[in-house]
Structures are given as C-alpha cells and as structure tokens.
Amino acid sequence: MTASYLYASTRTPFGRFGGAYADVRPDDLAATALRGVLAQAPELDPADVGEVVWGDANGAGEDNRNVGRMAVLLAGLPVSVPATTVNRLCGSGLDAAMMATRTIETGDADVVVAGGVESMTRAPWVLPKPRRAFPPEDLVAVSTTLGWRLVNPAMPTAWTVSLGEGNEQLQERFSISRERQDAFAARSHQLADSAWTEGFYDDIVVRVPGTDLARDESIRPGSTPQVLAGLRPAFRPDGTITAGNASPLSDGASAVLLGSRAAADTIGLDPLVRIAGRGTAALEPPAFGYAPVAAADQALRRAGIGWGEVGAVELNEAFAVQSLACVDAWGIDPDIVNTRGGAIAVGHPLGASGGRILGTLAKVLIERGERWGVAAICIGVGQGLAVVAENVAPTQGRRW
User: Fold this and answer.
1) What is the pLDDT of residues 308-327, one digit of tens each?
2) Of 11, 16, 178, 348, which is the active-site residue?
3) Whole-model pTM?
4) Confidence of residue 397 (pLDDT cuts 50, 70, 90)
5) CB 74 within 8 A of CB 32
6) Catalytic residue among 123, 267, 343, 378
7) Which segments of the chain does DSSP mark as H helices, in order?
8) Looking at residue 396, what is its pLDDT?
9) Nearest to 118 by CA among 143, 145, 94, 150
10) Domains in the chain: ranges and CATH
11) From 30, 90, 321, 337, active-site residue
C-alpha cells in the first residue's frame, strides 16, 4: 500500500449563527472551499481529481443530501469528478479526510479532495409525516440545527440528554472546575485573535463571495477568565458550562487536498504532512466529549509513536470541559494544544471542523518545526476520531 499526504488546505472564515453567512447556502459555502483549495494547486488539472469526499452533519435542507456532489458542480469542476457526502456528525469533515486517505492508500485514486460544510443558521425545521391524512392534532416542526431529534422511543433516556448536559456529567466525573473551563476558553479567544493579527490564517483562508467577513466572526479578543465568570450556566442552574466556555453555533466550510507521493508532479506541489495513523473510538453517548482520548491513543499506536514525540495537537473544542478532560487523560503539555485558537473562539460548523483542525495542524507543525502532530475531534452520540500527521515539508522553499 502507498502512503497518503496532505498537499494543501483551506477554509472559509467561520461565521456566527445568524451572522455574515445568514444568506449563504451551504452548497455555496462548500463550493467556495473546494475552489479555494484547488486554487492553491494551479498546476493541477481538476479533471485529475479522482474523488471528492465531503462531510456534512445535516443533509435535510439546502445541503441537498449529497452536498459534496453539489459543490463539485457549483465549483465548475468537470462533471466527470465523482463526489460523496459522509455524515459522522461533528466528525464528518475529519471522517471524509480519513476516507480519502484510505482511497489513496489502496490505490483507488491518486488525488482526492476532502472537506466539509455546515450552515447551522440555515438548517431547516423538519415536520414528521403524519400516519394518516389531515391529522386533527398539532404537528411539531423540529429544528435540525443541533442535537437529538425525532428520537426513537426505544433509546434509553439516559443516552439522549443534551450535549451540554452530557458535558456537565463529564465535569462531575473529572471534577473540572468552572474556573479552569473559563481560563481555557479565554485562552482560545486570545490565541485565535493573535493568529489572525499575525497573519497565520491569511494563506489558508478563502473569503466567501458576496460577504464582507474577513476573519472568524465569533472571536472575542477581550475575553478573560474574569469576564467569562460573569456568564450564567446554560444547562443547569448550578452548572459550570456557559455560552462562553462552549463552542458557538457556526457556519463555514473547509477543504484539504490529499494525494499519494507519486501525485506530487500531477498536483504541482510538495506534500506537507504524511497521514501516519488514524483512530476511531466509541463509548456511551453522553460521554462523547471523552471519546477522542481512545481515538488518539489508537492513532498513535498505528503510527508507531507515543505522546512524548508529539509536538502539536489540534483538538476541536466542542466544550472547554471535554477538551480539558482529554488533555488531562493524555498527560500532555497544554501549551502544545490549539496554539492558534480553537473552536470556542473560531466556531464549530459541524461538518467543517475536521478539515479545519487537520489543515491547521499541518501549518502549525511546519511553523513550529515539529515532526509529529495529532488532530482529534469528539462526536455526538459517543464517538471520537483522530489522525496522526508527520511533517514532511521541505525545509527550503516551503510555502509556510
């Protein structure tokens, strides 16, 4: 089997719920990211893309079921380029990238684009079909923005608690204080603001046509633990999770260009990182925030390295409490985690976050001169994914 490599990445700035992208369809966001990542490889003939794999946690509305194929068509790629859409909820974008790497490693394609998109703003309400025509009772429209919906009554109620309640349970399990959560969240905002100010994101972000959003819309540079301490708990009257130490509802898209080593000439770029290991884990649904622990450990074993060799971690910050629980479990230096900000600050458009953390990890590894890195993400209903990446960028003439 051959190896798979990341050659380029891009994403849109992430917009807040009801914000800059309120009038932008998710398929247009996806097409923007797809065009953006291909623009980083101007020598690549789009007809040589063997597959597009796209992540999307919501296919119920303008995503039009297979938003990956919609993105291919809207982006103007040849109609001969196939595309599929995968749904692993919050992990959809990283799952898409993992599937793309397997496609390359098995020799089914040399060049694959993976990515993801979410418009949580434009996610529709769904109306269950009645069992008979003209029902006399009320019918309830259910939001598809986030969380459980139309739950099977056979599902244990202990499993179907809200995402926030599940993380309050995680907080109780590991005794992670409100103060630690607020400090972690403030750090995320401060690092994300610094990253944008220093130009870190300038060459891996593509603007969405027809909008004025130039950077992530949810970043609050003035965030401090003291400011965040004043926010009310969101899920329990006496809880620790607030709107300030959890990721916001968001809109956006991301994409990564992947290929075999032999595809470098076709792509016209040197590879940046090698995908060295992948991990998937599952546990009881309410504890989903802790699932990246086992997923990352598995990915490291498959890469043949240990945590002591890892120099950078991109962990999607669904909630500060679950991020801290994972970092504590791994026993790693918190200073190597999300050094350019995380989802609490930049946002978490579900299907797009996996591509964001993988692309950001590649650039951080190169910027810091580190060899090994981990991208990990928690997933609702009790799952986690992780990827180990090895920095292989040439030391001379590299893009970053």
Assistant:
1) 999 999 999 999 999 999 99
2) 348
3) 0.96
4) very low
5) no
6) 378
7) 26-39, 67-74, 92-105, 163-174, 178-198, 225-228, 264-267, 291-303, 320-330, 343-346, 353-368
8) 46
9) 145
10) 5-122+247-391 (3.40.47.10)
11) 90
